[in-house]
Amino acid sequence: MDVNKEVKKYVDDLFKDVGASQQLHDLKQELRTNMEERIKDYQAKGMTEEEAFKEAKVSMGDLSGLVDDMREHGKDEAKQHVYTSMTNRVSIGGIVIGSMLILFGVLMSIGMMFMEIEPVAVPGTGIFAVAGAIVLTYSLLTRETTKLYSMNKVRAGLYSLAVGAMLFALFTGMMAGLATGEMFIAISSFTVIFIGGFGLWIGLILTSKSTRKKDQIT
Amino acid sequence: MSGKISTDLIRGNTVTIILNVLRQGDSYGYEIYKRIIDLSDQQYELKEATLYTAFRRLEKDGLITSYWGDETQGGRRKYYRITENGIEKYEENRKEWEVAKDILNQLITGGDPDGRE
Predict the structure, then answer these.
(1) Span A100-125, mean pLDDT?
(2) Chain B contact set for A30 (CB, 8 A)
(3) Can you give the residue ranges of every domain in chain B?
(4) pLDDT at site B114
(5) CB A30 to CB B52 under 8 A?
(6) Inter-chain contact B47–A61, Cβ cutoff 8 Å?
(7) B63, B80 Cβ separation under 8 angstroms
(8) Better-predicted residue by pLDDT, A59 or A45
(9) A46, A102 in Cβ contact below 8 A?
(10) What is the pLDDT of residue B58?
């Protein structure tokens, strides 16, 4: 038998009806490490793995006080859950509004192509799409899913800014190009802003220090 | 192993015993457990469950702090370290104990007309 697996199962069973929390996660890790070491000690004294595991369980003592303690923390976590789902509702609103803005900007621009107006005005409503993309990016990143924690608000804001700058560059480039009819003006005004946004974006990716992936608390 | 000294007698002193181990250096659950057995010359075993409960309370009261070790093999160990407040508390408890043990001794064994004490 894989004794470490048995230990994990035993510790998990002790707290099986307790809500998840960081404290519980840490305590389980602590119990496992110490129990594994104790089993190794018993084995060194000549016990079989089974005997050692059995002995370690006996000498653990009464853990009911700790279980109650952890149950309190689990309750706090439940409260936190309500809070997160609040943020999620806000972020879902952001996703809807962002998507609507993008659609509005794009469709209006398409519509204006068929209007009898100056071509320079055509991409004008595209600015709504830029704004929509910023809102959408922010909302998507701050959303908590079952697999990912929501991103830090400042960081999500910077990401949105980077995306916004890059799209705004595209927008400015098109406007400038159509207004002057000169391709080089279009490209140069695009480049200046785009590089700013791109630099910010690369910087953010390279500094992604903490993974948002959730630790599978089992 | 346990049962040689009654749990009732020792209960009020669990905290002082743990602080005494930790004031001699940082340590983790199982090591503290073994150290207590050694200190008692194998006469007393403080159950692990009691230890973990005490750690949590001590940490909440600011008498000890904890940190994770950086073991590369096996699971990570959670180490405990005594704080300044913890050392103060220990000294205080120790003084109390010095006084109490003499008084208790007199109360429990004194006044015997047979002159045993």
Answers:
(1) 82
(2) 28-29, 52, 77-78
(3) 7-109
(4) 64
(5) yes
(6) yes
(7) no
(8) A45
(9) no
(10) 95
- Contacts of residue A33 in chain B, CB cutoff 8 Å? 28-30, 74-78
pLDDT at residue A21, as a whole number? 81
Q: What is the mean pLDDT of each run of 10 residues along chain B (117 residues)?
A: 69 92 95 94 88 93 91 80 96 94 90 63
- Expressed as residue numbers, the domain containing A16 is 3-61
Domain boundaries B7-109, CATH class: mainly alpha
User: Is residue A158 a part of any domain in this protein?
Assistant: yes
Same domain, yes or no: A143 and A196? yes
The separation between CA A70 and the C-alpha centre of its own chain, rounded to angstroms, equals: 26
- Residue A69 belongs to some domain of the structure: no
For B28, the closest chain A residue by CA position comes to A34
Do the beta carbons of residue A102 and residue A113 sit within 8 Å? no
Decide if A79 is inside a domain: no
Q: What is the ipTM of this complex?
A: 0.83
Residues A95 and A148 in one domain: yes
Q: Buried b vs exposed e over A51-78: b needs ≥16 C-beta within 10 Å?
A: ebbebbeebbbebeebbebbeebbeeee
The count of residues in chain A is 218
- A51 with A106, same domain: the answer is no
A94 and A55 in one domain?
Answer: no
Q: Residues 68 to 87 of A: which have CB under 8 A from any B CB?
A: 69
| A90 and A192 co-located in one domain | yes
